[in-house]
Amino acid sequence: MIILATGFVVSHLLSKRLMPFMEKLFLKLPGVRQVYPSIKQIISFIFSKDKPAFKKVVMVEYPSKGIWSMGFMTNDSFKEAEEEAGQELVHILIGTTPSPWSGFFIMVPKSQVKFLDISVEAGIKLIVSGGILKPS
Asked: What is the residue extent of each domain of the chain?
């Protein structure tokens, strides 16, 4: 019971008061204030259970014609980019091995995107393994 009570106190009471205080101290470090809020937002979005960061597994000809790269559709494009391109775009993250969360962000015309019929988890396994583990 003591361990359970201690865990409850630390996780619910202290963490809610201590974390904002620690975050304020952390933000005072040089250069952190400019980068930390964006990184925090990205990490919370990637690991959110409500909205998955990767919507679909896709293939695009990247970095050049005839070379196909697998990536993840992260979003539809924004109005200004579509107006400038003159066509409907989608956001694609071309993940790198062994960490599919890093890589290259590209905006591709939707007409040039091939949507694969595999789960995001299978796509992540394929990228992390460097192509060794194929989707079933």
From this structure: 2-46, 56-128
